[in-house]
Amino acid sequence: MKKLHLFHTNDIHSHFEHWASFITYIKNQREQLQNDGEPSLLFDLGDHMDRVNPLTEGTMGSGNVQLLNQAGYDFITIGNNEGITFTKDILDHLYDHRHFQVVLANLYNKEGNRPHWCTPFVISEVEGVTLGITAVTARFSDFYSPLGWDIRDPFSEIEPIIKSLREQADVVVLMSHVGLPFDKMISEKLPDIDLILGSHTHHFLHHGLEIGSTLITQTGKFGQFAGHVTLEIEESTKKIVNKEAHLIPLDQDEDIETKHLIHELSQEGMKTLQEVITVMPRPLSVDWYGKSELPCLLAESLREWCHADISIVNAGVVLNGLEPGIVTKEMIHRLCPHPINPCTVQLTGEDLLTIINIGRDKEFQTFELKGFGFRGKVIGALIYSGLSYHEHEGGIREEDVIVNNQSLNRQATYNVATIDMFTFGSLLPPIAKAKQNFFIPETLRDLLGWKLKTYFK
Hints:
With 457 residues, the chain is of the alpha/beta class. The protein contains 15 helices and 24 strands. The strands form 6 sheets. A 6-stranded mixed beta sheet has the order 4-3-2-1-13-14, covered by helices on one side. Strands 6-7-9-10-12-11 form a 6-stranded mixed beta sheet, with helices on one face. A 5-stranded mixed beta sheet has the order 19-16-23-18-24, sandwiched between helices. Helix 10 packs across helix 15 (444-455). Residues 287-420 form the 5'-Nucleotidase C-terminal domain.
């Protein structure tokens, strides 16, 4: 009987609090297994990067690649944080100095070719056992397309690949950054997959999930756990006779070399972010639950950048104010770290009334949102540019609202700039239901920095 060990991580999101402990764990494990004659491989399933961290923002992801190299990864795939928060040119060169293979089957450029930096599948022989490995990532077409990418349906892309790999390999592995619902579905539709190393939905599958003959794994988020899959393979037939999955808490002693590397890369990122944006003669305040100057400035920049009639943004996306003096990129990043993009939607006056009344609700304002790119505490009040209304008891009525010095018209259609966060879920249903036009790759902090450059001149 031969044992093959597959270690895996997912959705680190540039949270490196546990990274040095992970390196201690993976070094010790792989060294011990090598001494025991048992081979191992190391996989990352995407969203290793997140521009919320100055290390990633300041190095444009190259710092993350150095950490992956130092850890000894064999195979990685990308998540949406790699795929849609960097420009196409940056992503095209992000992995130039990699020491691992990037596997990805469902990403193409607009000319119909796959990127040069990834391969749709790998056939790898490990001590007599042949592995067929492929990978897919979530299909956020509205975000990939403006960047110059063609992101295709993950199931359609890998169906023929899986069938081909099954004919050539002893073990078929899918690296999936699409999420647990997809992984469950594909396990039933493509039973030729032996193992799905999953991610994206941040599930903690402590012992994996078996559906038919497929084992699905996922390690949660932020590097709190590492995943360890053990495959027992009959040497004569090369058939898998047993599969086990475990999540390992990362509370080991920290690897000193790795701690130093994280510190050095963080300093490198911070140095890049010291570029001066402007010099402010006075402070700009932030109030999450009312009108204040900095969120109003962001709303104004959003309306101007998108050439819209009105803009809507939540005060909670601005995490803190600014003091008088020099303002750097790092300071803007700290107060607005979210990977959130502008977008425009066409809304009726009736839609705007609905949004205004939702936004006045205290439960809405104090909601502690997780996900959708939001990296703040609470949603906060809705802030408008180009729209105002008269407060009074009860709901806001049509006659209470002014749009660009004219009374609101319920039947009229308005071009509204807002943020992509509101296009997901059900926070503001009229925006989620409307047809959206995304502005990619600029983020809210890009717009805020752009506005601040001229605000005090």
